[in-house]
Every structure is written in C-alpha cells, then in structure tokens.
Amino acid sequence: MKKTSVGFAMTGSFCTFEAVLEQMRELVRRDYDVLPVLSFNAARLDTRFMEAASLHSELKKITGKEPIETLQAAEPIGPKKMTDVYLIAPATGNTLAKLVNGIFDTPALLGAKSHLRNDRPLVLAVSTNDALGTAAQNIGRLMVWRNVYFVPFRQDDALRKPRSLVADFSLIPKTVQSALCGLQLQPMTAAPQGMA
C-alpha cells in the first residue's frame, strides 16, 4: 500500500523550529511519507535559533528529500496529487493573512493552494504573537473554510505576550490523522501552560 503523504510546510516562526522538527520526525516514525516545503524566509534566513543550511541538512536527514523552496517546485503539488494532507507548521500571522486573502507568493502558500484544489485537508499549526490581535480575524475566517483544520492552540505567555498563541505541536500527528478522517481535533483551544 502507498504511504500517506504529508506536505510539511515551514514558515518563519523560527523559535518553534526545533519543536516542529521533532513532530516531523514523529510523522516519519509513524510511516508517513513527508515532503518538506519552505517559505522563502524559512529557506534563506540565518537566525539565532537555526541557520538555513542546518535546517536544510536536518530536513534531508529526517525525510530523505530535498525541501521544496521555489514556486516552480511547489506548483505541481496539486496537479500531480503529491500530498494526501498538507500541513503548515509553524503557520505565522503573515502566512495566515496571505492564505485567507488569496496571496500565494511563497512555496509554502502556493503548495497549500495547489493542494486544496483536490479537496484534501490542510492543517494549520498557528504560531504568532498577534493571534489575539489583528490576526484573530484571519484565524476566525480560516476556521470556517472547507478542508481546513487547526492543530489545537493556546496562549504561550499570557503575561508577557497577551495576544500570542502557539499550537500544541505535540498534537500534530493526531491532528493530521483526524483531518484525514474529516474531523477537527477538539478541544481546539487548550489552557495556557501551567494553568491546565
């Protein structure tokens, strides 16, 4: 039988990369065929959290594949039915705003658009400091989109970053599995860390 294929797109919430990569490893351990996709910023920027070359090396090591990092390489995802489910993790506020407004100008976003043409599930793992600010309207709009599912999220630092939300990345595998069955994993929001 063919393995279930997961498009795993990463965008620029660099502080979450280590946690997200651990879930990519977990999907591979669970025998998913993972196709890495990067936004332009995720592919090119060196940050205090990770250098771009290190990210590329880690993606190749985990998945055995070179990441998609051009618009030309992302466009065939839908026409060739390359992915059964497409995950954006982390999904930044900028990514959510572009997605909801039909702006597909990065490989991660064009891959999502291309994938959605096949009525297959798109999973979003939010990570943004403005989720309870201007990004809230975009999250709300995406929640009612057909074939869009969210990894459950919570406030990550209610005192110092009161508008910030981050997905519970450990729930990525379970959310992917639920989305493939057409179900939103509940509860969609969780208590802030230390308050559960």
Descriptors:
196 residues, alpha/beta, 7-stranded mixed sheet, 8 helices, 7 strands
Number of helices, counting only DSSP H or I runs of 4 residues or more: 8
Uncertain runs: none
Q: What Rg is obtained from the alpha carbons, in whole angstroms?
A: 15 Å
Biggest β-sheet description: 7 strands, mixed
Beta-strand segment tally = 7
- Average pLDDT, all residues: 92
- Secondary-structure element string: EHEHHHEHHEHEEEH
Structure class: alpha/beta
Note the beta-strand portion.
15-25%
Range of helix content: 25-40%
Cα shape: globular
The rounded distance between the terminal residues' Cα atoms is: 41 Å
Briefly say what this structure is.
This protein has 196 residues and is of the alpha/beta class. It has eight helices and seven strands; from the N terminus they run βαβαααβααβαβββα.
Polypeptide structure, described:
The protein has 196 residues and is of the alpha/beta class. Helix content is 35%, strand content 18%. It has 8 helices and 7 strands; from the N terminus they run βαβαααβααβαβββα. It has helices at residues 17-29, 40-44, 52-63, 71-74, 93-100, 107-116, 136-143, 172-180, and strands spanning 5-10, 33-38, 85-91, 122-128, 148-150, 153-155, 165-167. Strands 1, 2, 3, 4, 5, 6 and 7 form a 7-stranded mixed sheet that branches. Strand 1 (5-10), helix 1 and strand 2 form a beta-alpha-beta unit. Helix 1 runs parallel beside helix 3 (52-63) and helix 5 (93-100) packs across helix 7. The protein is globular. The mean pLDDT is 92.
